[in-house]
Design brief:
5 helices, 4% strand
Length: 138
């Protein structure tokens, strides 16, 4: 019994609430659509470029969130750290790959607007802590 107690004290448990973070990609999608709709007035290539940039950011973040929360609500700090590193690596790799694909595949791409769309979606990550009402740690 004492051995089990020692194992439990060595592993700290964190109670994450994945539902408190899933709204971030939805908000990113909304910002991306809004920006694309505004740029549609200028032209379709402009709107598509911003849309692709926002979607690249959104897909990368969605992969990170999926990798980080794939184990469920409660697991050890070691597992959390490993999942965070794996999620961040997957996100960077996928984001790079998607940028390369988009830059090669789309001839009428407006590169500046591609990055504007990406940064606009990424800005949601920067302001989301200010908007978040529920805490991740409970």
């Amino acid at each position: 019994m004492a051995g089990n107690d020692a194992k439990m004290t060595d592993r700290r448990k964190a109670n994450f609430s994945p539902s408190s973070i899933y709204w971030v990609p939805l908000l990113q999608f909304g910002v991306t659509l809004l920006l694309s709709a505004v740029l549609l007035v200028i032209g379709i290539p402009h709107a598509v470029s911003a849309l692709l940039g926002g979607l690249i950011c959104l897909v990368g973040n969605a992969v990170f969130i999926w990798r980080f929360f794939k184990r469920g609500n409660s697991h050890s700090a070691r597992d959390l750290l490993r999942d965070a590193y794996q999620g961040a690596f997957s996100k960077m790799l996928l984001t790079t790959l998607l940028f390369v694909i988009v830059l090669v595949a789309f001839e009428e791409l407006k590169i500046l607007l591609l990055f504007v769309g990406f940064i606009a979606a990424q800005a949601v990550n920067w302001i989301s802590p200010l908007l978040m009402k529920r805490k991740i740690y409970k």
